[in-house]
UniProtKB/TrEMBL annotation:
Keywords: FAD, Flavoprotein, Oxidoreductase. This is Acyl-CoA dehydrogenase family protein. SUPFAM superfamilies: Acyl-CoA dehydrogenase C-terminal domain-like, Acyl-CoA dehydrogenase NM domain-like. It comes from the Bacteria. InterPro entries: ACX4-like, Acyl-CoA_DH_CS, Acyl-CoA_Oxase/DH_mid-dom, Acyl-CoA_Oxase/DH_mid-dom_sf, AcylCo_DH-like_C, AcylCo_DH/oxidase_C, AcylCoA_DH/ox_N, AcylCoA_DH/ox_N_sf. Residues 241-383 form the Acyl-CoA dehydrogenase/oxidase C-terminal domain. Gene3D superfamilies: Acyl-CoA dehydrogenase/oxidase, N-terminal domain, Butyryl-CoA Dehydrogenase, subunit A, domain 2, Butyryl-CoA Dehydrogenase, subunit A, domain 3.
Length: 391
């Protein structure tokens, strides 16, 4: 399989032949079916539900999970799948990451064997789409300490009350993993809430400038009753929630790398074609400087993502490893998409030249799964032995 133009050091060659076949199928899907509709869906801020059945045919939702169709795939492969999706459309990669990483990951890590068997196979076939309800109107970076949504047990039922915000897939997901604080013991616990469950209301967040295709929702839970059988049996504290986030934070590094790689490749193609002063601007020293700076950011970020995947596969990845990857790659991405917009000049502020959408989408990736500042403090605590978090 040909390597992407932005993979300057050829990290894709680390995949086995079988893994490259899987990735080739994803790339063909992206180019033939996703790319032609991605911009229109983004502009209209509508989700292309018609593409989900084809998405499902790729059979990639089961990849990270053992026993759904065989051994779990290497993180290196699932990382490159995320990169490939983001390289075409960061919104659709986010949709997939929410469903496959956050929702399925919560059930895989925190559910009982029965719950895993009940929900994961249908989710792997994308017959049921998942969402992840953690962030709240008053709790983003401080959600671990400041979680306000409550759960009260009444016999074999739990009663949930509270609000969630920025819940991707939240308007149409078949099930939402809701994290709430138990009134009895103050512990954070997880619940699988069905979309049509009485007491849960969702409203789409409007007027976004980034990841417009992703259907983010405000969720209000009002005496929402959930069966004990739908409480994630192995979720007993925020430590369990954080295990899910540790997995997916590494995925953001791959998405960020794919996003900046696409912006770079579009800027490079534009520079080769755009003529000023009688020749292509790609031949100007200052333009080459911008392109090389972008390529350096991409190469360093991809190397970090690859090494993190290797640590994850070896069971050696720690919070600070994922945090550093998320912090570094999204910061490099923000710089790279700005440089790409600079190369394209005035044309970089319209959607017609393949840079502006990635420029806008980068702002969301920069913020979610922990801001740069919060991830910096996670790494800082690890390397100094001193916590700088405000309590």
């Amino acid at each position: 399989m040909d390597l992407l133009e932005g993979d300057f050091y050829g990290y894709g060659s680390l995949l086995t032949d079988e893994e490259q076949k899987v990735l080739a199928g994803v790339r063909e899907f992206c180019r033939a079916e996703l790319a032609p509709i991605a911009l229109d869906a983004w502009t209209r801020a509508e989700f292309p539900h018609e593409i989900v059945p084809r998405f499902a045919e790729l059979d990639i939702a089961a990849l990270p999970y053992a026993d759904l169709h065989g051994p779990a795939a290497r993180r290196l492969l699932t990382g490159f799948v995320s990169l490939e999706l983001a390289h075409t459309d960061p919104s659709l990669n986010s949709f997939f990451g929410i469903h496959n990483g956050l929702a399925m990951g919560s059930i895989d890590l925190c559910g009982s064997d029965e719950q895993r068997e009940r929900w994961l196979p249908a989710m792997a076939r994308m017959e049921r789409i998942g969402a992840f309800g953690l962030t709240e109107p008053h709790g983003g970076s401080d959600v671990a300490q400041g979680l306000e949504t409550t759960a009260r047990r009444e016999g074999d039922t739990w009663v949930l009350n509270g609000e969630k915000r920025w819940i991707g897939n939240g308007t149409f997901a078949d099930l939402v993993v809701i994290w709430a604080r138990d009134e009895a013991d103050d512990a954070v616990k997880g619940f699988v809430v069905q979309q049509d469950n009485p007491g849960m209301a969702t409203t789409r967040i409007e007027n976004k400038i980034a990841l417009r295709t992703v259907q983010n929702a405000d969720i209000v839970l009002t005496d929402c009753r959930v069966a004990e059988d739908d409480r994630l049996q192995r979720a007993t504290s925020f430590t369990n929630t954080n295990e899910v986030l540790r997995r997916t934070r590494g995925g953001v590094a791959w998405g960020a790398t794919g996003t900046m790689m696409a912006a770079y490749e579009n800027a490079l193609a534009y520079a080769k074609e755009r003529e000023q002063f009688g020749r292509p601007i790609a031949g100007f020293q200052l333009v080459q400087d911008l392109l090389v700076r972008m390529l350096g950011n991409i190469t360093a970020s991809l190397g970090m993502a690859v090494r993190l995947a290797q640590l994850q596969d070896a069971g050696e990845a720690r919070d600070e490893h994922a945090a550093l990857a998320k912090e570094y790659t999204t910061t490099a991405m923000r710089d790279t998409v700005a440089l790409a917009r600079q190369v394209v000049g005035g044309n970089g502020v319209v959607l017609d030249y393949g840079v502006a959408k990635f420029f806008a989408d980068a702002e969301a990736l920069y913020s979610f799964e922990g801001t740069r500042e919060i991830n910096t403090l996670v790494v800082g605590r690890a390397i100094t032995g001193h916590s700088a978090f405000v309590r």
